[in-house]
Amino acid sequence: MKPWAMLWCALALLLGGCATPPPAQRAPMSELFHDQLFKAPAAPIDTSTIFALNERMRDYLKHDLPRRGGEPDARRALFDALYRRDQLKLEYDSAMTRNAAQTFEARAGNCLSLVIMTAALARELNFTVQFQQIQMEESWSRAGSLYFASNHVNLVLGKKRTSYLDGYQIDNANALTVDFIPIPPKARESARLLEENTIVAMYLNNRAAELLSAGSIDDAYWAARQSVEADPSFLNGYNTLAVIYQNHGDTAQAEQALRYALRQAPNNTIFLSNLAQTLETQQRPAEAATVRARLAQLEPYPPFHFFHLGLEAVKLGDYVRARRMFERELERAPDYHEFHYWLAVSQYQLGNLREADKHMRQALENSTTRGHHDLYAAKLDRIRAYEAKVLK
What we know:
About 55% of the residues lie in helices and about 15% in strands. With about 400 residues, it is of the alpha/beta class. It has 17 helices and eight strands. The protein has two domains: about 5-195, Roll (C8orf32 fold), CATH 3.10.620; about 305-390, Serine Threonine Protein Phosphatase 5, Tetratricopeptide repeat (Alpha Horseshoe). Strands 1, 2, 5, 6, 7 and 8 form a six-stranded mixed sheet that branches.
């Protein structure tokens, strides 16, 4: 099966927040939603729970949040606790987008989950918060035939609110920026402010992508529908909706959603790639070729291009070529764990045990889910056991 792209943090499917398009007009929802095609959701998402605190979170703020130097400074204490392993002990985990309470209980989440939890705690302490999208190149990941482009969001903690209305007014001279991955200074300087409804739309979009990846296509549809309703200007929601339609066999509805998104962002390569595949599925090769030609102009070597060439070489047993392809992909995305993993496999097959050890270790260090971490740790142990045996 060919890949489908989705935009994630945040996500986009080729299942997240992607390149930032201009604001969209309000969607013609009656045209883009096709509820009759899907079963009612097994577990509807209650958006009121996204930022909701539970009693354990309130107890933490009241009794466990440390105070610096004996002086009550809750904002700095919260900021420090987010980064200290002996306090909240947060762990980056991209496997699932969690709401505030789930993230607090798991002490883990992706950047969007961690931002949501931090915002919920900060508001309980009566501090102003400001959401931001960081202008960085998308990072890509995959799950089976679904490919995910991820953008990054962070949070700025401001001073105490003096009134209900200044909940989003930040004094930049006195602000603390909360980030859970390293961000280049220039990217932080060009951050784009986000409203809460966009964060909600991102959360719902991520959940839709995750549900689709897990095979829960009906639930995925309703989550994507909620995302579009939460913020009609968040175009990734339409893309996710289109991917869900396509996976459900509703190609006309997929095309409709994608063409709407492309009217707002005509150069979005993820939307274009998904439209080309939709047209190919509909047996419209001439139209698909036109879209593919446009894509080739905008993006001659799409994400995972060399990776797929490397996998083909692995199947043929050509590990020299496979190594070269995986190395080219790593030049573009030096921190992606799966590229390191397959380069390690290629080096192992070529008898380069030290290089195999190095790249499997890097795959382990860059893994973003506990499942991948455990897999790479086991593989690394096997490589080292073999190394020890060979070197005896």
